[in-house]
Design goal:
The chain has 295 residues and is an all-alpha fold. 72% of the residues lie in helices and 0% in strands. The protein is built from eleven helices and no strands.
């Protein structure tokens, strides 16, 4: 005759406050943003993101140092502008592309590989909330990466006693461009990363798509400019994320054009605004469709 024993191991129902859907979304956003920079993870997870952040800020710090030295040695001399606001993000795009390729799969692949979506969905959030929180976290991380050096340039110009209004007129559109870069790149990177649970494959795919698209655009623009087709060369920029946003900055934010080709100041340049909207809609739509099927 067997005897069954029931053990009371102390489990009890949670009777505290229910913080709800908004708190769950905010918690997922905060957790994802911290994860991009390796916060709350082992030290080796912090090395790459913070190294890339340092590389992104280094030219700005050098520019600030040169400005301050020249302001002290030659007060009346014209200011030296080693790294203009308008071109900073575009010229250092390789750093942000590596950051995007390395950290986007880190944000998405673990959840896919270990099948933890049911755990997220057991809380008061849905699949759309999950996609929104991840996109917002990646865009915020990219904005920190891209916006911080611009802020350093602006603060350095004020310390060098340059005209604050003139500097603000250059800084504000560049910062607005950094916001658009962050949104477009986040949608691009997470869209690709979400297609595979293998982090290595995601990193390779993002870098390959970036290199192929930007390389093809640069080659086509070079050929067109060499044959004096400057305006068509500008519109070729719609085919790559960085040149797309650069065209948006040129037309919508009235920034001086950087790179090859020419973006028309007239109504035709609005195609870059539509391109940015389409890129965001496409990336978000693909993510939403992808996570409808994830279990």
């Amino acid at each position: 005759m067997s005897v069954t024993t029931i053990h009371d191991i102390g489990y009890r129902n949670y009777d505290g406050p229910r913080l709800g859907r908004r708190f769950a979304i905010r918690s997922l956003y905060t957790h994802s943003l911290r994860g991009v920079f390796g916060l709350g993870r082992p030290g080796k997870a912090k090395v790459l993101p913070f190294a890339l952040f340092g590389l992104m800020c280094a030219p700005a710090l050098i520019s600030v140092a040169v400005r301050l030295v020249m302001a002290r040695l030659a007060p009346g001399a014209p200011p030296i502008n080693l790294f203009p606001y308008r071109a900073y993000v575009f010229d250092l795009q390789a750093i942000s592309a590596i950051f995007l390729a390395a950290q986007s799969p880190q944000m998405m692949s673990r959840d896919l590989r270990f099948h933890v979506m049911p755990l997220y969905l057991s809380r008061p959030i849905n699949r759309g909330d999950y996609v929104f929180a991840k996109l917002a976290a990646m865009a915020s991380a990219l904005f920190i990466l891209l916006g911080t050096p611009l802020l350093l340039l602006y603060v350095g110009s004020l310390l060098a006693k340059l005209n604050a209004w003139d500097q603000l007129q250059q800084f504000a559109p560049a910062l607005g461009g950094a916001v658009v870069y962050s949104l477009v790149l986040a949608a691009f990177g997470l869209c690709v990363a979400a297609l595979t649970p293998r982090r290595g494959f995601g990193v390779a795919a993002i870098m390959a798509l970036y290199l192929v698209s930007y390389g093809a655009v640069t080659i086509m623009q070079g050929i067109l400019v060499a044959n004096t087709y400057d305006t068509p060369a500008g519109y070729v920029g719609l085919l790559s994320p960085y040149t797309l946003v650069e065209g948006f900055q040129t037309w919508a934010l009235r920034q001086e054009h950087v790179g090859l080709g020419y973006v028309e100041p007239g109504p035709g340049g609005a195609v870059f605004v539509l391109g940015v909207v389409a890129a965001l809609a496409l990336g978000t739509g693909i993510l939403a469709l992808r996570y409808r099927k994830v279990s």
